[in-house]
Structures
1.
Amino acid sequence: MTMIFGVPMQALFGQLLLGLINGSFYAILSLGLAIIFGLLNIINFTHGAQYMMGAFVAWMLLNYAGIGYWWALLLAPLAVGLFGVIMERLLIARLYKLDHLYGLLLTFGLALIIQGLFRNEYGVSGLPYAIPSELSGGQRLPFMFLPNYRGWVVVASLVVCLATWLVIEKTKLGAYLRAATENPTLVQAFGVNVPLLLTLTYGFGVALAAFAGVLAAPVYSVNPNMGADIIIVVFAVVVIGGMGSILGSIITGFTLGLIEGLTKVFYPEASSTVIFVIMVLVLLVKPAGLFGRTA
């Protein structure tokens, strides 16, 4: 058996794949957080609950309406994104001119309410969600076995992350979004509906979380605590990449997922804390994060 640094090659690449899958979820979720904070200046602690809602909507569509995975990838983000739009209009829009702490406390409270409602209705045990038949099975590679669905998760997350970055950084719509947060009065003078733009931006960030939830449903069990288990790590990813940095969130999410996977091979005891150790070290050297801009 081929060994790399004293570790069987198949075990090493298997953990790298798991790390890359985790990194895919970190990247999509931190991207949504970065969009909402970078463009709206709201620390959205409800993001984990919205990720969980995406998985639950996919499960409900399958079990109550017979609507499968592929349609759920479209419908669940739309449904949860619409919920986010309503939440933004009724509650969050009132906090834009206040300190970040108010948005954090509001969204943290909303997250607890949402998780409590789902926990009361469905309990804490995981609900299974089957892998779509088109993505069942896997590929026998020379160095490892690659499940088709795991490969799909990585590819889909990469495509969504890069497409989102291109839209925000390289298109006229993205320019309007950035301008609306920096000088809303001027942008509104040009006939742009700034409140609607901000509402749709929040809804899109929420939809990204729900999309990640649908991707995660066949990988992890669908349960009310799945968002609470990942959101703290995702916030650490955002801080390391730089609060509000779109590209930083994407790169940092995938990179930290791989580092976490390697840590599980060489030092398993540190795998649950390595991201937070990296966060502390990065903040000591560069408080704005790796890709963040100092004010």
2.
Amino acid sequence: MTEERGLPEVAWFGALCDDDYEFLGVADPTLAASFEHCRDIALAAEASGFDSILLPSGYSLGIDPVAFAAGVAPILERLQPLVAVRLGELWVPQLARQLASLDQMLGGRLLVNIISSDLPGQQLASEPRYRRTLEILTVLRALLAGRDVSFHGEFVDLELAPPRIATATASCPPFYFGGLSPAAREVAAQGADVYLMWPDTLPAVAAIVSDLQARAAAHGRTLRFGYRVHVIVRETESEAREAARRLVSRLDDDTGAAIRGRSLDTASAGVARQGELRDGADDDGYVEDTLWTGIGRGRSGAGAAIVGDPDQVRGKLDAYRALGVDSFILSGYPHLDECHRVARLVLDDYPHAPLYANRAVHGVGPR
């Protein structure tokens, strides 16, 4: 590890979008998204030493992440919710008030995952949708930092003072954002603090980091880099590979396709890339040492897992670290059980600490 770069941020995944299984594709009512089930995952992540937890958002799936984060705020002492917000669904002044209020409730621990979404029931072509996203990000950052807004754009036209309620530090929480298309990368370069990637091979990750660094530098900015991936870890590699096979042992192709089709981002460049990885994998589903794509047969979005023993998993994380990644969002099925397992087998010997625990450094990262 390179100590001068600081310690990595390690997050767990809150299964708010009906994405929790013992056997992938086999619905289990006890694992369906509910306040109680997702609350237990969040509490387990905090107790297990994770720094933060991603609270995902899907219009037609599961429960609302902003409402959920408000519900668990009083019972979380340290964990930082990374709350996904779908920018196409909320008017930006309303969203600013919600996020500022939520950050107050969390004592300044809010992180924000930006999703460039459509309005449900409507569809905007990719490039104009990303132009709208950048306008919203620009205005949202100003309002959350307590600044007046005078913005006259293609999609947002506002002359507005910030809401009275401010974030706990009167500064904007970090924005996490991902997307592979050129338009998405430009939004990240200009408006994000952390660029999030889905699973990919090490050479591909290196190329993405290099490209985004250059794009951000062209705008006088720098980015941090995050990596969202599933983990299947066991005491031995053979046990981990057997757990991977078991996870998809009851999944048929039609069910997998139906699950992937429920997502609103099925035509995105990122989803297409996950499909390419599956197509390029070996007969066991491995596209690279320890990187297994079988999990993408039964879910949209992040579609690969690091599979191996504890040293192999930590080694893979360190390989991404060497490429410039310093934030990891991990998950595993079922999420409550695997939260404890990953913490015990991986985190107990893996350097990590809350990067934003000291709110005096909340403003680290580009503005």
3.
Amino acid sequence: MLNLPAADPQQWLLDPAITFLNHGSFGACPRPVLAVQTEWRAQLEQRPVDFLVREIEPRLDAVRAELAAFIGADASDLVFVNNATTGVNTVLRSLNFAPGDELIVTDQEYNACRNALNYVAERAGARVVVVAMPFPFQTEAELFAPILAAVTSRTRLVLIDHVTSQTGCVLPLAGLVAELNRRGVDTLIDGAHAPGQVPLNLNALGATYYTGNCHKWLCTPKGVALLHVRKDRQALIRPLTISHGANSRRQDRSRFWLEFDWAGTWDPAAVLSLSAAFRFMESQLPGGWPAVMARNRALALAARKLLCASLSVAVPCPDEFIGSMATVPLPAAPAGVLPELPFNEWALQTVLRKAHRIEVPLVTWPDASRRWVRVSAQLYNSLPQYERLAAALRAGLAAGG
């Protein structure tokens, strides 16, 4: 039996009657962090003008500096957005693409962000070039050679995940970004799953644009995400909501901060709770954040090994590409069976949820003929939970699911 340290599950509000193996979708915020968010909201409502006019900037700056240190960035290059999808939209809708421009994306890109790319391309008359990334695979070269082969003199931007949503793979982006930089191609990294799951050094990475969620693996309240823009591109990027900062005469703060930090009346309690999330998570294990990431990765690898053995399937990629999530292939669905609307949920997934009280996503990718189960590993998870999942999957598949 794998013996890994764990946090007390009761520190999260998750329903104890449900085996929750889907931290990757929306995260889960610990009780102590939610309590801090409530305290911030109380202060806001007690003194709204002081809080939002006179005090908000230094408070945001303090949290931003803490986040910047954690992700290896300069605070001056960092702003907050609601989620990574908003970050992707912010960048794409700020850039002026032209007819004939080519925008590269992989077939593993998150659907919402793919839709944003299609939207801006259609408006501009640009062309979206979809590159198929293999899965299963064995090497980094297999992943990135098709992307580099698709680059032409018309390529303006490459949109790519840091941790893929469908397949749960950590992509080693440093070499790819460096080569695209050398070729004069900008990169927009959808790092929705990365902060808190894998170590980050955005200055060293050198991507043009990087966005990532804090509500997933950092366990902040919902509505906290980062957008990092390289200094040489900050003048191009505007928030989705144009507000007072657009014509501010202030010289004490960058236009980048002035525009993004105030887009109208808002509730900053979730963002200001980021410090509490950092403190809570790093206090859960001796060794702090490195230990948290290493523990969750070890559990994800153990869960993957267990599931593959239980289902008699091969692991789809080497261990080096795994963080705190892992995806395992499932047998094809019975002929004619498709995911059910409105949630695109397979009947097998419904059985897992209703009959076995297990919350886990079954992913359809790249088409309806292929199904995968994607598991997440957070501090409140343990190996026996994945053993229950393996038994439930075997039973559901045997019943024709």
